[in-house]
Amino acid sequence: MKYTYLSLFLLVASSACAQTSAVRTVPHVTNYQPPVFTDADRLKKLEAAFPIVEKLYRERAEKYHYPGTAFGIVVDGKLVYSGGFGYTDVAKKTPATAKSLFRIASMSKSITAMAILKLRDAGKLRLNDPAETYIPELKSHKYLAADAPRITVRNLMTHSAGFPEDNPWGDRQLADSDADLINLIKGGISNANVPSFAYEYSNLAFAMLGHIITVVSGKPYQQYITETILKPLGMNDTKWEYTQVPLEKLALGYRWLDDTWVEEPLLHDGSYGAMGGLITSIEDFSKYVALHEAAWPPRDDADNGPIKRSSIREMAQPWTFSGLFAQSKNPAGQICPTASGYGYGLGWSQNCAGIVSVGHSGGLPGFGSQWRILPEYGIGVISYANLTYAGMGSVNSAVLDTLVAIGKLQPRQLPVSPILAQRKAELLKLLPDWKNAEQSGIFAENFFPDKSLDFRRKAVQALYAKAGTIRKVGELIPENQLRGHFLMEGEKANIDVFFTLTPENPALIQQLDFREVSK
Questions:
Q1: Domain residues of the chain, as ranges?
Q2: CA nearest 281: which of 272, 289, 269, 292?
């Protein structure tokens, strides 16, 4: 739509975005109407897609030799369909199920970031604090350039600290002790960039975040996350250390080598677990996915989760630009460019159709995984496989496309705010002659100086003449609380009317555009 304005990236965190340690009272917003789903039969329509979903995962597993696979579909905060096939233990032929516990690798990162925000919300740290505030050993870090800014907590969360991309090196560090991590920092860290300059994926940065959680909370980060996030969500089977997992539930990891599965040694939990150490099931992790889905849309009802909904939505903002894929294609095979960014422990993307996807992949020796949600559609997918770096991203994309297509899903529809409805009604009374428009009190002070009344009158009357008798005025389609458009259907042509309101209270019309639309 011509009049859709999307802010693609928030590349720099402004001081206004940084929440202080002070507790702030948020005023109640009157007359706010959050977006809603208008289709009451969403789940029933989606059920027709479930056999296809399972087929997609089976075909992926067969093609790429996955020993075992588990998957789940989360709709409107509920695990509505899940399954598994193959084996978590090839030798014992232990079946993979939605209850099997897989190491989810870098899917762990968003939970680590959530713990940082939980501490931030409690006033115990600030995202713009230098990381050396909590890791004193970083004070001696030698930066790439003399004018480089200090590494902040936010830099660590958004892969913008300047450290080099460290896959697959980081994947072998899971069992390192806290002392190992500190000694590495003391010994000096090589830089790929200066901080706040570019996106560069860093497992080391998330190991540092784990250490910060430990320092600030006064507890090992594993204990803090388990007590404040996992247990409150009912993720009672989720573990950090594989020796604590019952053998009949534990997924072993494998590598496909010389046409056979070779078992990968499991690494113990350690200082790098914050970047990729969690072991969980589809059933358990679906509760975490449900928490993210429930953060949308902003609304007035009780906020009783382990972390504020607003903080979860903040995690999903693209704080660092990570890529533009100009040749991406949609399910129909058409070119559909996609932009990507990184939030707080979450990957973000938006395609040419405006569909936003949020989630994270994971890969370790022996494992591959991914979860992803479409926040404005209320659906999400999770999938695991116990093969080294099993790529689950493309099959998850196919599953989401299938769900949207077969379920004929539409994003949440934004109700018309009272002020938009009021201004539309007042505007229609003035058209097409604009009689007493300057005295109407509905236009902002810039409106007529920008384009004179006489100019606007002539332009609109010319459009009315082309359209002929106006037979119907369509419903207002809001873009947000203060901007929208509607269609006037004429005998010969249609007229699209777009307007946007000012930040004043009450809000006034600051921009008004008319354009002819062929029938």
A1: 418-517
A2: 289
Which residue, chain included where needed, has tokens 């990570």?
A: 322
CA distance 246 to 248: 6
Q: Is the dihedral of CA 50, 52, 54, 60 positive or negative?
A: negative
Q: pLDDT per residue over 215-271, tens digit each?
A: 999 999 999 999 999 999 999 999 999 999 999 999 999 999 999 999 999 999 999
Say if residues 343 and 315 touch (Cβ distance below 8 Å): yes
**Within 13 Å of residue 378, how many CA atoms lie on the same side as its CB?**
22
DSSP for 296-307, please give it: -S--SS---SSS
Cα distances from 400 to residues 357, 362, 368, 406, in angstroms, run 10, 18, 18, 10
Q: What is the pTM of this model?
A: 0.91
In the numeric block, the tokens 């790429």 are attached to 64
Per-chain mean pLDDT for the chain:
93
328 closest CA partner among 339, 320, 317: 339
Query: How high is the pLDDT of residue 30?
Result: 56
Q: How many CB atoms lie within 10 A of CB 408?
A: 11
Task: Give the contacts of 159 (CB within 8 A, at least 6 positions apart).
Answer: 199, 200, 201, 202, 205, 320, 322, 342
Residues constituting the chain: 519
Residue-wise pLDDT for 370-425, tens only, equals 999 999 999 999 999 999 999 999 999 999 999 999 999 999 999 999 999 999 99
| Helix 203-217, helix 178-187: angle, nearest 10 | 120
Tokens describing residue 502: 């000012």
Question: Residue 359 region, left (φ>0) first, then alpha (ψ -120 to 50), else beta?
Answer: left
| 474: nearest Cα among 490, 487, 460 | 487
Output DSSP code: residue 85: E
Q: Which positions ≥6 away from 151 have C-beta within 8 Å?
A: 130, 131, 132, 138, 141, 161, 162, 195
Q: How far apart are the first and last CA of the chain?
A: 16
Biggest distance spanned by C-alpha atoms of the chain: 85
